[in-house]
């Protein structure tokens, strides 16, 4: 199994306090295993500073998934680069995880600004989001595009089904003009394991933007990254890596029992 210059090799992972561990480690473990077959793969961990980044829910968030005080049980990752001092080479793929940190306005704003900067440089080949990472992408006007009113079309994404209501909370943190701009330019797919918007059907400048892959909640990022792997490296490669880590893939992007559980279907 060999790599090709046309295949994406340079991966970046956005980190922020309160990231969801599996949103990050699920895709990364699959990519770690892929690198055994394609050793040219490069990984960059990118955060606001070089300080270790914890899964600990930020102090600004006063409740946890159980509506109790956040637990101190956490893990940390050490970034390799920062938003202001990014990797020295253009990224092929940028992965944006979700997590409780996306509820913190300062964290969300800093991440969205960096993601938008990378995306609008138009050297990025793919943008991947997991869980509520899609809310960060959706709040960046430079990513969502013109929308129907501007002669383009809506950006199609999905997200964690339990957290879909967070979109309105995220909108409330934006300036009124930006709020209305992004509100009308995203189509949320409520029943999907993952969604691919290749931007190819867009109008004008949207045709030169990188495809956006978005996964539903947490574990869905693993299925999405294997589907992405099949798309860019071939199904044989994706299957070999999945077998290597003994993972049984969901290969149907419309498989989504959680849309029913949370009353969205």
From TrEMBL:
SUPFAM superfamilies: Class I glutamine amidotransferase-like
Top-rank lineage group of the source organism: Eukaryota
UniProt-listed PANTHER family: ARAC-FAMILY TRANSCRIPTIONAL REGULATOR, THIJ_PFPI FAMILY PROTEIN (AFU_ORTHOLOGUE AFUA_5G14240)
Identification of the protein by name: DJ-1/PfpI domain-containing protein
Organism of this sequence: Agrocybe pediades
């Amino acid at each position: 199994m060999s790599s090709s210059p046309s295949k994406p090799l340079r991966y970046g992972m956005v980190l922020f306090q309160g990231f969801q561990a599996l949103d990050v480690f699920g895709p990364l473990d699959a990519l770690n295993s892929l690198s055994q077959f394609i050793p040219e793969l490069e990984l960059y961990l990118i955060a606001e500073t070089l300080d270790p980044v914890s899964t600990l829910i930020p102090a600004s968030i006063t409740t946890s998934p159980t509506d109790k005080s956040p637990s101190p049980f956490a893990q940390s990752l050490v970034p390799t680069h920062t938003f202001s001092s990014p990797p020295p080479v253009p990224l092929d793929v940028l992965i944006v995880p979700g997590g409780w940190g996306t509820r913190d306005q300062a964290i969300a704003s800093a991440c969205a600004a960096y993601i938008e900067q990378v995306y609008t440089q138009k050297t990025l080949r793919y943008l991947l989001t997991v869980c509520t990472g899609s809310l960060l992408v959706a709040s960046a006007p430079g990513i969502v595009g013109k929308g129907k009113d501007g002669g383009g079309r809506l950006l199609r994404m999905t997200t964690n089904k339990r957290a879909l209501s967070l979109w309105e909370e995220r909108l409330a943190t934006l300036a009124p003009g930006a709020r209305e701009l992004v509100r009308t330019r995203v189509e949320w797919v409520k029943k999907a394991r993952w969604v691919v918007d290749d931007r190819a059907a867009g109008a004008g400048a949207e045709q030169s933007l990188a495809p956006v892959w978005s996964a539903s909640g947490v574990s869905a990022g693993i299925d999405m990254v294997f589907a992405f792997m099949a798309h860019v490296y071939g199904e044989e490669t994706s299957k070999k890596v999945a077998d290597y880590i003994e993972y049984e893939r969901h290969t149907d992007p419309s498989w989504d029992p959680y849309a029913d559980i949370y009353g969205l279907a």
